[in-house]
Amino acid sequence: MESSPHLGTTSDLELRAGRIADPNIGIFLSFSQSIWALKTTLVDLKTKHAVAAEIREMIDTIRDIESIRAIPVLIPAILDLLRNGEVAVQKDTTEYQFRRLLLEIMNRLPVNEAVRPYVPQIYTCMLQILRKDNEENGSLASKTLLDFTRSYRALTEDFLTEFLAIFKEGLHNLKEVVVTTFSEDSAPLDPNVVPSSIRSFKVLGEMAMIIVIISQIHRQMVSGHIHATISPAFEVLALQSPAQQKARDDYEAMGGIWSGMALTIKNASGFSEFLHCQIKELMVVFRHLMGLNARKALLPHLDKLLDEDVLLGKGVSSKEILRAVVYSAIADLVHHIRNDLTLQQLARSVHVFSKIIHNPALGNNLHTMSAKMLFGLTDAILAKGDEKEAARLVSSMFETCLERLEALALIQDEVTASATQLKDNSEAVIIDSAFIEKSRPVGAAIYAMEKPEEFVHESRLMFRTLLHGFRVCLAAMKKCNATPPDGDVFLRLFEGCIKCMSLFDPDPRINDQNDAIDWFGHALLEMNLHVFQEVWTVKMDFFFKCASKRMILLNICQFLFTREATSPTLLAIVLGYLVDRLHLLGEYDDMTAAATIRLFKMAFGAVTAYANTNEVILKTHLPKLLMDCFPLAAKATKPTNYFHLLRALFRAIGGGGGRFELLYTAVLPLLPEMLDSLNRQLMASEGPTRDMIVELCLTVPLRLTHLLPHLNYLMQPLALALRGGPELVSQGLRTLELCIDNLTPDFLDPTLSTVLRELMEALHSHLKPLPANHHPAHTTIRILGKLGGRNRRLLTKEPALKYRQHSELAKVAITFGGSGEKLDLGPIMSLACRTLSKGSPFDRGYSYTLLENCMTVMLHEGISGQNLEDVFVQGMEGIFDGLNIPDLQPRAESFIRKVAQNAFEVEVWRNHSRGPGARGLLSSFLDSLPYGLARDQRAQAKVAQSIFVLILHDLVAPSSPNVTPQDIMGILHQIANRITGLCLEDSWIHKSAGCQGIKNLSSIPAYGTKWVMEREIDLIRTLLHVLKDLPRDLPRDVDEVTDLLLGVLRICTSELEIHGDSPGPARNKLIHLVGLFSPELQSSNAVVRQAAQACIGLLVSLSGRPAVDLLMPHRERTVTGIYTKPLRALPFMKQIGMMEAIRYCISLDPPLVELNDELLRLLHETLALADAEDNALLGRSPGRQSALEVIQLRVACIKLLTASMPLTDFFQRQAQTRQRVTSLYFKSLYSPSPEIKDVAHEGLRMVLTHQSRLPKELLQTGLRPILMNLADPKRLSVPGLEGLARLLELLTNYFKVEIGHKLLDHFRIVADPAMLTVPLTNNESITKLVRLANIFHLLPSAANIFLENLVNSIVQTESQMCLSNQSPFSEPLGKYLDRYPVDGIDFFMRHITFPRHMRTLRSILEAKFAPNLE
After folding, report:
1. Which of 984, 1011, 1305, 1314 is the most exposed place for a label (fewest CB within 10 A)?
2. Which residues are paired to 816 by β-bridges?
3. Is 1403 strand, coil or helix?
4. What are phi and psi of 385, to 5 degrees?
């Protein structure tokens, strides 16, 4: 037979099925002809055997859809061959092997509805095999009947009658077979001859199992027939071989007890099969008795039945063969009599079946059966009334299932890893636990022997059973008042369940996954809320990483969000986790970003579902969500992720129907800044990103009355929306109609007038008849009617006209049939450019080819005149767009380089000839360069810059010897003009492209340094302008601009002879360069200040002299403007800039400024600003941005006062000023702002370093606020306690250790049990407790007297909060114990028998908070 490829397709399977019938027919003949050939042609049996072997292997890989075609052809052919073929009993014959292959194919048929019509025929054929064929084929037929009975449950009376008749005949035959085979004079069995099926112990045992399955599935039908088999079954159980009976009688006659097999039995292997057959028959009788009332007679003997040695014996083979059958029968018995069992018997049953669940040598089906049996015992255990024992048993069952779940997750990881390695290298030998298990002769783990897909299927069923069991056990624990599992247990449960959810990955049936998720969710609902909070807090990161790979896991959160009991707790945890990682959203891969946004949407949906409890939780995160997204989007690689998030948030709040008053209240103060940020983003974006921002502008979640003062922000987005897609147009029309309906013309018309032309043109574009969309047209007509003619005011405005130069148009001559005509290239190339950017992939190739040909014609005919130059620039921009299309990129790159080379050559020729040449070519090409370089997508910008580098290299590596360096430098300067012009544009995209262009120009071989040195001042000022003109939302590549500026400075100073014989010119140049940066030291922009300081620092390091030497010539210009202006009259950011400039000058060594009256006046003014109240600084309308600026202002003031201490000798001559500054430090330590507290702490530390003892009056004044708050626990605040901790770090000697007693009293009062029993995320009371505990390690050295009381209080608090792992108290308590390690160890050794104390110590040691304890 010719070789056939292993395709595994339906057509391949049909072909082989046909060739089984007759391999002599051609592969192009139909299958019906093959069946016909079967009846009329003598077939080569070896060929049929080979083809049947191929089909057997293919049948496992064929898909369900393909099998529908193959099965109607395959099954009839095989059944016909089995019915009409001759029975073979010799193992070494081809006929024997061929029939066995056919039966294996039948046994491997997929469970499919296409098989169901053939089930009766298969049953009939299998019964024929059982009656007439050999033992091996009969065993396969029995297994096939067993599988088909389980899968299709198509049982008929005729089949049952015939099957039981065969079974009874086999039972009657056994007596003769036993005598013939196991007598002392029996002939040895021929190993090459297979006995008849009807006289086989093995087949009879398999048939017994079929009766067991049938009695479970069709109990009513079988009950009347099965009685007839009981008597023959008892006869079989009583059978004993003559040789065995003689040996037993002889041994017992001598007073012994016989066990084992008689040595005179000739056929030992057959005798073992006979014994197994008897046990299986016993199971049939046993299961029959379970259906009768007589089963209660087994109650006293249950302990014996649960003994494995009694049931299975001690033989290895008997255990391996019979364990599944026997234990399933015992499980059925226990299930039926569970209500009659004693508590001790129930405990024994739990123990035995728990062992089965943990036995890896048993199949998952037996594990699943045992688990189901265990869960069925819970009601019986609870009904006994012994709550203590019931709690012990149920807890044991729960722990058993949990350990099985962890094992399942571990095995799943190993199987997945092995499958991945084998997929990568099919010949690799993987040495792992599965390899070791396979090496076992017996008792190997089933998972190592099964195929991965079979293991996954079985494990999936086991996992679903365990999920159900967890819920049952947890509910039972509540009923018997058992101690609920702690956080450690639930953490294991959570992690195991999430890992096992991967079992559903290859399964397309989504319902199975949803069922598992629902059951897992119900198990989580059984948790104590404190434990629920701890589990999700600890495992939230693990869960999110898994959910980002398997998105369906997020449905767990959705399930819990819809439950009122868990929704607030989970919402607080999820929002806290996501908001803390908000800065990563723009860097996530697509799957992780999608999971993040979907989880945000679920959280917003939870607010809608339970607004009363969840609205306040979202409100705490709302300012960060609304205002941090814009600066983060500016720095992100994928900024649209943030806009998707904002859109989901706006829709959630806006879709609430006006219910969310708290959220409206939170949004309203942010509205001006938010609208300003949206409009800035709108001006800087294009394409789909701009459409999203437009939608955000029009869906701001506030009422129209709140938007009225800021309505002008919405006009430009409104005009753009009417030019967008269908959804955006619909939103824009609704917004416009809403404004017209609710606002008077006197108020609305002046606002609309700013965009009246764009608005009316957009409305006019929607007035189109069918087949255009009629909905916007009808809405537009209605809006125009409501305007009542006000739209005609546009006629009074100046007309919008386009100016065209008076020059020759760009045309190309085309001839048709002898007559020529010139076509205008402008419209043609414009259409081609639009198609390249927005057209279909099919049209883009033709559009590019057209552009390239048109450009070639224009280059050939020359470019002169404004119109030709404009068309040429437009065409080059289209070519640059082609760089972003992968199929066109090589062609576009080559063409751009050729055009550039041509333009350079023409320019060089023009310079040499001094003729009128085509000057417009180079100019036009360079005019298109900014469009090509300025790209909003980083990948596209990178491609464009790489082409720009290639163009520069082509320029400086000329092929003609006539090109001089002066020619190249002239062209480079022209290119530089365009690049620096990009830096002066408004959008950051253009600025970034210009900076990158300067970087590329400066790195040109042989010319980069020279070019930079000739334009150094221009480049420095350009880059400073870029930094000074930064958008408010700083982009991600700002640091690159500063680095470029430093790089330019290094090039400029690379050839200076600073330490040579005549350093004067070099020093003068450095002073001149410093003069460029010194005014920027007081810039209101922090980035500019930092860049100026970095550049001055670089120049100072190059000079080798103090900074004062270079800055002194510019001192008056730097500080005079600061001294002459009152700070309070300037904006906050300008004040900060001036203070930072003075602080920089003071911090130099030696200082640049002198201590004089002007400086002291400035310092007093700074002190007054730092000490002023917020209301005095902000005025009547404080905004979020103004509040942030005030914090920055206070930080700058305190930093300046601290920096001035050495210069003023700590205000030695101004004692009152020194006291005011020190009081300011004390006051600032109680600020809620961490930045202010940090700088105040540093300032106070400096004061204490210089002055070891503070005046008593000053100390009392500084400590009075916190001491007054300590007097009353109700007045305690988190900022105040943090301030006290910072004071104790510096003023430990000023405090008495007795303050610890007061702190302990406050801890006990705040730790109210009623407050601790309700889990509240971000609970201020818990934060106060943590801050109180954090003070004890800062107390004087005698604070070890509080150790026992403090530890006991914290342990009690953790116990009331049900915390089992690291808690918020672990770190502060760890710091305290680390200070007193000996006392701490002694205390815990005395409490070593207290689990809660040991758990607290374990958490501290695991987190390494107390190194001295280790």
Report:
1. 1314
2. 819
3. helix
4. 90, -10
pLDDT digits (tens, 9 = 90+) for 310-363: 666 666 555 666 666 677 777 777 877 788 888 888 888 888 888 888 888 777
For the purposes of burial, counting CB atoms within 10 Å of the CB of 687, is it exposed (0-12), middle (13-18) or buried (19 or more)? exposed
Output the six-digit token pair for 329.
């029968």
Residue pair 547/599 in contact (Cβ under 8 Å)? The answer is yes
pLDDT, one tens digit per residue, over 429-447 is 455 566 666 566 555 666 6
Among 94, 72, 85, 86, smallest CA distance to 18 is for 72
Asked if 1191 contacts 1232 with a C-beta cutoff of 8 angstroms, the reply is: no
Output the six-digit token pair for 247: 């040996």
The Cα–Cα gap between 1075 and 1021 comes to 12
| Cα–Cα distance for residue pair 823/816, rounded to 1 Å | 12
The reply to whether omega before 771 is within 30° of 0 (cis) is: yes
Side chain identity, residue 849: T
The contacts of residue 372 (CB under 8 Å, 6+ apart) are 465
Question: What is the DSSP annotation of 539-553?
Answer: HHHHHHHHHHHSGGG
C-alpha to C-alpha distance for 663 and 73, rounded to whole angstroms: 67
pLDDT, position 1194: 93
Instruction: Kindly report, residue by residue over 639-676, the tens digit of the pLDDT.
Output: 899 999 999 999 998 887 778 888 888 888 888 888 88
Neighbour count for residue 39 (Cβ, 10 Å): 10
3-class secondary structure, 1356:
helix
Would you state the structure tokens that stand for residue 1226, as one six-digit string?
Answer: 């004390």
Identify the CA nearest to 1358 among candidates 1331, 489, 1379, 1366.
1366
Contact 537, 1363 (CB under 8 A): no
Count other C-beta atoms under 10 Å from residue 1265's C-beta. Answer: 17
Q: Which residues pair with 822 in a beta bridge?
A: 813
3-state SS of the chain: helix, strand, coil percent to 5? 75, 0, 25
The answer to pTM > 0.85 is: no
Q: Name 224's Cβ contacts closer than 8 Å, sequence gap at least 6.
A: none
Token pair listed for 481: 């008042």
Angle at 952 between CA 948 and CA 957, to 5 degrees: 150
Stretches in the chain below the pLDDT threshold 50: 1-11, 13-15, 17-41, 429, 917-918
Separate counts of helices (H) and strands (E) for the chain: 69, 2
pLDDT reported for residue 580: 93
CA separation (Å) from 87 to 35, 40, 55, 97, 170?
21, 21, 21, 11, 18
Average pLDDT for the chain: 81
Q: What is the dihedral of CA 965, 966, 967, 971, to 10 degrees?
A: 100
Q: Where are the alpha helices (DSSP H) in 550-660?
A: 554-561, 567-580, 590-609, 611-635, 640-654
**Bond from prior residue into 1150 cis (ω within 30 degrees of 0):** yes
Tell the burial category of 84 from Cβ atoms under 10 Å away from its Cβ (0-12, 13-18, 19+): exposed
pLDDT score, position 35: 34
Type of residue at 1261: T
What is the distance between the alpha carbons of residues 1300 and 1320, in angstroms, rounded to a whole number?
Answer: 27
CB 154 within 8 Å of CB 116: yes
Q: Helix crossing, 988-1002 with 1016-1028: angle to 10°? A: 150
Instruction: Please list the alpha-helical segments (H only) found in 337-451.
Output: 343-357, 364-376, 378-383, 387-424, 433-438, 446-449
Q: Is 90 helix (H, G, I), strand (E, B) or coil?
A: strand
pLDDT given at position 1097 = 92
Q: Are 857 and 872 in contact (CB under 8 A)?
A: no
CA distance 446 to 39: 45
pLDDT number for residue 25? 39
Which residues make Cβ contacts (< 8 Å) with residue 1045, sequence separation at least 6?
1020, 1023, 1024, 1027, 1091, 1095
